[in-house]
Structure formats: structure tokens, C-alpha cells
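Running log. JK asked me to keep both predictions on one page so they can be read side by side. First protein, sequence followed by its C-alpha cells:
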Amino acid sequence: MSGVSNRRMRRLSGLLAGIVCAASLFAAAPAQADVFDVRVDQARVMKLPDRVSTIIIGNPMIADAALQAGGILVITGKGYGSTNMLALDRAGHVIMDKTVQVMGAGSSDLVTVYKGMARESYSCSPECAARITLGDDAGFFGAAMGQSSARTGGAQAAAPAAH
């Protein structure tokens, strides 16, 4: 009889050791942050939980959010980094808390040129043209922005007035 009970005790102690080991591994694992990734100068769509009435972005220089009908949220990456985003119900209770992580441009046509410490970015598909990208040299960025603004202004001036 003692042989049977010894085997049961060994099985139970082995099982107990396995449970304790698994529990300690689970407890030691870092909690996964609730992160929403978006690229700078791009937008992504997120479906919100029910009852959201207010969206708060911690740093609007990093990301912007526009609440749409049907519980749709459009998040646009404005600058590199991360910020928090809160969704509140009508009573002001937080029903969602996420980190918005804005990363650099990820397009395959992006070419970055370094001239000493100065950086210039180009879109190359099929020909290379200056691209307005955060972090570029101030002179290069300003020149590209000026050309883009002038082009937009010219297009708006040439557009017929709406009746």
C-alpha cells in the first residue's frame, strides 16, 4: 500500500511543482501594454467600444483623433513619439486607455540622404522629389514646405468658386 501512496505523493508533488512554476512564470511576464501604432503623416481607423462620447489625446503634437459616426475613430500621426489616448463615456468615466505610438515613415519609396549632420528626405517613385519629413534639415524642410504651400495656394486660387 505504501508503494501506491508514495507514487501518488510524487505525482501530486510533481503536479504541484509544475503549477507553482507555471504560475511564477505567468506572474513574472511583463504586462503587454495596450499600444496602437500609427506612422507619422498617416491615419489609421479604430473601432471604439460602445458609449464613447469624448476622446482625449495627451499630446496633440504627436497624434490627432477625429471621432466619426458609428463608433469609428480616425487617428493621425503628427509627430514621432508616444502619447496616451482616453475614451470617456457621457458620465466622464474612462472606458478605454491606450498608448498611441507614432513611428517614422515606412514607405518603400523613401530615400534619406545625410550631408554631414543635415538630413534630407525624398520620395522616389519613379523619380526622386523632396519630401516634407519631420527631422529633416530646417533649410531643406522649409524650402520643400514653401514649394508645397505655393502649389496649394495656386491650386486654390485657380479653383472655380462654389455656388
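And the second, directly underneath as requested:
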Amino acid sequence: MHLISVPVRRPADLEPALRALTRERPDALFVHPVPVLLPDTAKVAEFALKHRLPSVAGNRGFADAGLLMSYGVNLFDLGRKAAQYVDKILKGAWPGDIPVEQPTTFELVINLKTAKALGLTVPPSLLQRADQVIE
């Protein structure tokens, strides 16, 4: 496997990154869930589908937008955890005394519409493990 890294650090980097991927012609695409890409999830998904790239991201919004699948932290769970931290602080806890916790809830989302468009068959065993299947 040959890894091609195409950094996108600001919104203006997206178009040059997509052009670089078009030149490099990868066999698949992993989209790191950086906040700068969140407004352009649909554009990234359209690119992946147009170039017939099986794609995975670490944020379910990308699978909702059309990437093949996502596996990552449940953002709603993180929001609830943040609210619990705020509650403790507002009740007088010192922030430095509150233990840092790792995320514990992850979710796998598979987009079968995209799989069909790419001509891929998702194994039933993977579909059974999915938290959500988009049909």
C-alpha cells in the first residue's frame, strides 16, 4: 500500500488537495475529520464518488454526506461529556482536578447507497456490526 498525504489546513487548501488526488489516482481515500473539512463534507463525498474511491472518514457526517463509511467517536456523546465537565466546574470543581477521560462511544456508519454506486458488496458480518446502515 502506498500512502499519499494531502494536507488541508484551511478551506483554501481543499481544491488544490482534490486536484493533487486526481493526479495521484489513489485506490481509496481516508478523510481525517479535521474541523476545516466539515463545511465541505458533501464536496469531498462527491469527489470520492466521481473518482470511484472507496472512502472512510472518522466522522459520521461524511458517511451521511455520501462517503462509503465512517468510524469514529460519537460526537453527541462527546457533547454530553463536555456538559458534565461544565456542570462540575460551575458547581465549584477546580478544572485541574477533573480527570481527563478518553472517549468510550464509537460508531460505525456504512452507506450502502455509495457501496452500490461503487459496485462494492459490504460483507454481512460488517453490516451486522454497524451502528447505522444508510440505505
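Observation for JK regarding the second prediction: The chain is about 40% helix and 15% strand.
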